[in-house]
Design goal:
It contains three helices and six strands. With 121 residues, it is of the alpha+beta class. The protein has a single domain, classed as Nuclear Transport Factor 2, Chain: A. A six-stranded mixed sheet has the order 2-1-6-5-4-3.
């Protein structure tokens, strides 16, 4: 993985960082006060997992990018200070995870993110 450098948050930059499993670059996209919410089977909409602050979000991406799996960003859409993208992941055993993510930017950094994910069981 490459060292952390602040880059402009775009769909292309997110795609590059996710597909190369570069957690440090992904973490550099977040504001210090950012919040990421994860909604899935274990974390329903009424009780999403909340990851608060850049340090916690860095640990989240380090975990995700450190897993032996492939990551692919298929779609990204930007409008003003909002960006959405889909991510498809595959573990070596063939199990798949699909995520849809919406982010809100403040000052060019991600301030708020919601991830909805589903996986094979």
């Amino acid at each position: 993985m490459s060292t952390s450098t602040r880059k402009t948050v775009t769909g292309a930059a997110i795609k590059q960082a996710i597909e190369t499993r570069d957690g440090r670059t992904l973490a550099s996209f977040y504001a210090d006060h950012a919040v990421t919410r994860v909604i899935d089977r274990n974390n329903p909409p009424s009780r999403p997992r909340e990851i608060k602050g850049k340090a916690a979000i860095t640990a989240f991406w380090d975990d995700i990018c450190g897993r032996a799996m492939t990551h692919r960003v298929d779609v990204s859409i930007a409008e003003g200070d909002k960006l959405a993208f889909t991510q498809a992941c595959t573990y070596p055993d063939g199990a798949k995870v699909f995520c849809a993510s919406v982010v809100e930017l403040e000052g060019g950094l991600i301030a708020d993110q919601t991830i909805v994910q589903a996986w094979d069981e």
